[in-house]
Automatic annotation (TrEMBL):
The keyword rRNA-binding does not apply. It catalyses: sn-glycerol 1-phosphate + (2E,6E,10E)-geranylgeranyl diphosphate = sn-3-O-(geranylgeranyl)glycerol 1-phosphate + diphosphate. Mg(2+) binds at residues 17, 44. This is Geranylgeranylglyceryl phosphate synthase. Its main location: cytoplasm. It comes from Natronorubrum sulfidifaciens JCM 14089. It comes from the Archaea. Sn-glycerol 1-phosphate binds at residues 15, 164-169, 194, 214-215. Belongs to the GGGP/HepGP synthase family. Group I subfamily. Coiled coil: none annotated. InterPro entries: GGGP/HepGP_synthase_I, GGGP/HepGP_synthase_sf, GGGP_HepGP_synthase, GGGPS_halobacteria.
Amino acid sequence: MTTACPWDDWNHILKIDPDKELPEGVTYGDLCATGTDAIEVGGTMGITEENMEAVVEACAEHDVPLYQEPSNPEVVIDNRALEGYLIPTVFNAGSPFWITGAHKEWVRLDGDMDWDRTWTEAYIVMNPEADVATYTEADCDLDAEDVAAYAEVAERMFGQEIVYLEYSGMLGDEAIVQAASKATEESTLFYGGGIHDYDSAAKMATHADVIVVGDLAHDEGVEAVRETVEAARDA
Ligand SMILES: CC(C)=CCC/C(C)=C/CC/C(C)=C/CC/C(C)=C/COP(=O)(O)OP(=O)(O)O
Ligand SMILES: O=P(O)(O)OC[C@@H](O)CO
Ligand SMILES: [Mg+2]
């Protein structure tokens, strides 16, 4: 048995990108009220402490667990409204900086880490067109066996509680998501990328433990996000 983690009971995460606008008439409060289990605040490009703070403050008064997902150590904010920090480590990154290097710098410069509120997410980045793939020079040329092996390594060799299959911007290959799911026993499998309606959410939620919905909130708004919450719960 592993110890209980907040995400054990989650089906759905809404990822809000502080560098992106909300559709006209939509507020952060509306997004918090979609029924999502948690909000992750993060994105790859254009992230600053200021835009992070602004989104966290706007969500703080609403009753949904809030996590920051920083893209580099400089944008980590100290805000008590956060339940904690979900820190990516990119298993298929082209440079060790995005696996452990940024983390080492963060810990070195911080000196007083809040470990009780800090967790990692073992990312496998799959969409070569996504900013996150360019940013981390990820090797996205992976088949189902490669992905399953990365997921098993993350769980068994590196003790990762979260394995995050990241297709940001595109809907993933169902067979690959299924392979990652089969390869993980204890870890919680997060899936994110291209979820845009009930059916796409339902498909990915069949295999993943938790689905992550990002751009849909910025592009379509609240009703579209609600549909994905419903699908995640039904799955
Ligand atoms: C050690 C600390 C504190 C930070 C480093 C954390 C690492 C390794 C970050 C690298 C991976 C990364 C950038 C994760 C951020 C979350 C993410 C994948 C957001 C989605 O990005 P995209 O959708 O590709 O980007 P945009 O939507 O911003 O274009
Ligand atoms: O923006 P989308 O494509 O929904 O991706 C969600 C999330 O996995 C991004 O990190
Ligand atoms: Mg994105």
